[in-house]
Amino acid sequence: MRQIIVLIVAVLMLVACKSPVSNTPATSENSNIPYQSGDLLFVSLPLNFGLSLSPDSVSLIMSQIDAPTQCIHVAIIEREGDSVFIIDATIKHGVARYPLDEFLADFTLSNGGLPILQLMRLADSSNGSLYVANAKKYIGQPYDVDFTLGNDAQYCSELVRNAYVTPSGDTLFPTLPIDFTEGHGTLSRYWNDIFSLLKCDSPQGKPGLLPIDIKNDSRLHTVSMITSAE
Fold first, then answer.
1. 26 and 105 in contact (C-beta within 8 Å)?
2. Angstrom distance (rounded) from CA 79 to CA 107
3. How does residue 186 score in pLDDT terms, banded at 50, 70 and 90?
4. What's the angle, vertex CA 122, arms to CA 91 and CA 65, rounded to 5?
5. I want to staple 26 with a disulfide (CB 3.0 to 4.6 A). Which of 104, 164, 165, 228 is the partner?
6. Is residue 99 helix, strand or coil?
7. Which positions ≥6 away from 209 have C-beta within 8 Å?
8. Which residues 6+ apart lie within 8 Å of 162 measured at CB?
9. Selection from 26, 7, 4 nearest residue 15 by Cα
């Protein structure tokens, strides 16, 4: 039953975020963005974004640059020469490494645009390759739909927490009580839709961390806002 629920959520998330097949996928080739191994790529959406929004509604909302947003995903960057790869944990892939172009295609909205993509980097980025190597140890594990630490599954920010461990064994991003409201007091439409589909309560308050917890870390700074994949 749980596998069926996960499949339903995966399909609906892709319906909400993926562009029509007839659209040309976004590409990162010839990009001037200075990606580095160990960078983090955050995905955000407006608070009133939901799984059932029409393409026209998405277009209208995404034009409201100053509207409140929620951070729904974080991915790890690996750079090999001129090629850029993503390592992350998603319902679609589990924990996997794949080209940035495929990531951008997965997260392309139904109107052909992109959600808010923010590339961030640690002030001390010297251990980037180590963090990438740590993340690769988890490739092949399933997505953690229970948001539980210490099992053989990962959700996106849990993977980052487990990967960003220094040579001396220090975990950069500490565990916190999970707060899906991001301080807004109530769950956003997006998370309400997700947990309604899962037919379960949100893991609000459980030990863990979310993408917003990592994004707000003072040691991270913004490298680029990715508004286009051209």
1. yes
2. 20
3. confident
4. 65
5. 104
6. strand
7. 157, 158, 161, 173, 174, 175, 176, 178
8. 134, 135, 138, 154
9. 7
Q: What are the angstrom distances between the C-alpha of 102 and each of 12, 26, 27, 31?
A: 18, 8, 8, 15
Question: What is the separation of C-alpha 158 from the centre of its chain, rounded to a whole number of angstroms?
Answer: 11
**Model-level pTM?**
0.82
Cβ atoms of 51 and 123 within 8 Å: the answer is no
- Contact assessment for residue 58 and residue 17, using Cβ atoms and an 8 Å cutoff: no
The encoded tokens of residue 31 equal: 């990009």
Half-sphere exposure of 7 (CA within 13 A, CB side): 4
Which stretches of 78-126 are DSSP H helices?
100-106
Listed in sequence order, the DSSP H helices in 37-108 are 55-62, 100-106
